[in-house]
Write a structure and sequence with these properties.
It is an enzyme of class 2 (transferase). Pfam families: CoaE. By secondary structure, the protein is of the alpha/beta class. It has two domains: about 120 residues, Rossmann fold (3-Layer(aba) Sandwich), CATH 3.40.50; about 60 residues, no CATH class. Helix content is about 55%, strand content about 10%. The chain contains nine helices and five strands, in the order βαβααααββαααβα. Strands 2-3-1-4-5 form a five-stranded parallel sheet, with helices on both faces. Helix 3 packs antiparallel against helix 5. It is globular and about 50 Å long. The structure holds adenosine-5'-triphosphate (ATP). Adenosine-5'-triphosphate binds next to helix 1, helix 6 and helix 9.
Length: about 200
Amino acid sequence: MLKVGLTGGIGSGKSAVSSALSSYGAVVIDADVIAREVVEPGTPGLAEVVAEFGEGVLTADGRLDRPRLGEIVFADENRLASLNAIVHPRVAERSGQLMEKALASDAKVVVYDVPLLVENGLESLYDVVVVVDTPDDVRVERVSRDRGMPREQVRARIEAQADRATRLASADLVVDNSGTREELAERVAELWRELLERAG
Ligand code: ATP
């Protein structure tokens, strides 16, 4: 089974690409979904986060208050490391379980949607790294249009992530998403053929 790491900056179109690949028969594993699952109410992960950071990181209904936790950890590297020490092993364990499940299926390709693949230096975990490449201005327009996020906030997120050249340097394959959705669909069809070929 071919292990594909799919990445790209905020609003580049990773979800659009992974859902198209899933329709072709790839198993898709979404790192953001797993990262949320491991700290859902009632999980040992959330209990550990509260033990470390206090009840102040919970909302009134007992869920993790992500913006609040973000304020704490992004202001202090040590706190961020503590959070990562709780979350990362659980994400790794859950990913492993999902990988086992994928291996047990007859899928030829498993796609990991990992937004911070390059930032976290995770290239070696995958057989193929696919980068969704979309110009910054286009991403700003799409994300502000579709998610109502102010343009400045999108720009700030872009600034906080790896830049285009750095991301492209890690790419085995690149999907250009500067065009229409129809053009993207064609590119993903080509990508799928390439991945199947590499899967053997
Ligand atoms: P994030 O990292 O923020 O989760 P993402 O990389 O998963 O983002 P998507 O959510 O797939 O990106 O795409 C960002 C937005 O742009 C979405 O609202 C999506 O519908 C839209 N979009 C994606 N591709 C195109 C396209 N070719 N033309 C127009 N809109 C697009």
